[in-house]
C-alpha cells in the first residue's frame, strides 16, 4: 500500500533466497512486542523499539545464519521499514517529528525522527564490543539495520550516543531513545493536516 489515509496497521512478508521475514505492526498498540530472528541481541533491540514506542510489533525471521547474521539483520530492517511506511500511509494527521533522550545507567542516548519522506540516517554511535559481549552480534550491524529501516520507511533519523561504557547499555539506550522518538512522530495529531508546507509528505 502506498499513499492514502493511514491504515495504522501493517503486515509485511519479505522472501528472498537468503531470508524469510514477517512483520506485523500496529501503531496504536500498547507496546506488546516480540521478535524471533535467531539473532538474540537483535531480537532484544527490536523488542525495545516496539515496547517503548508503544507499538504492537511481531517479527519472525529465518535466515542463513550458518553464514552470519548480516542478511537477517538487513532484511529485518527492510521489512520493518516497509511496515512503518504501509502503516503510516500518506503520513497525514501525525505529529511527524519526535525526539527523546534516554539514560540507561552510565549510558545516555539522544534520537530524533522526521517522517519527512527523505531517507537519511545520522548514526553518531561508537561501540566497541569484545567477542561474545553481545552474543554473536556485531555492533556495526545496528547501523546497517537502521539504514535498511530508514530507506524503506522513508524517514530521517539521527541517533547520538552521548555517554556510555558497556556496549549493551549503549546500544539499548540508543534503541530506546529511537523508540520514544518514533512513538511521538507516529502519534495522531488532528491539527497536523498534511504535515508539510508542501501539502504532502513524500
Mean pLDDT: 93
Biggest sheet, spatial arrangement of strands = 1-2-4-3
Q: What is the number of strand segments?
A: 9
| Biggest sheet architecture | 4 strands, mixed
Helix content: 25-40%
| CATH homologous superfamily identity | Imidazole glycerol phosphate dehydratase, domain 1
Distance between the termini: 14 Å
Shape: globular
Instruction: Indicate the low-confidence ranges by residue numbers.
Output: none
Number of domains: 1
CATH architecture: 2-Layer Sandwich
Total of DSSP H or I helical runs spanning 4+ residues: 4
The helix-and-strand class reads: alpha/beta
As for the CATH topology, it is Ribosomal Protein S5, domain 2
Can you identify the CATH class?
Alpha Beta
Strand content: 25-35%
How do the SSEs run, as a string of H and E?
EEEHEHEEEEHEH
Task: Report the C-alpha radius of gyration, rounded.
Answer: 16 Å
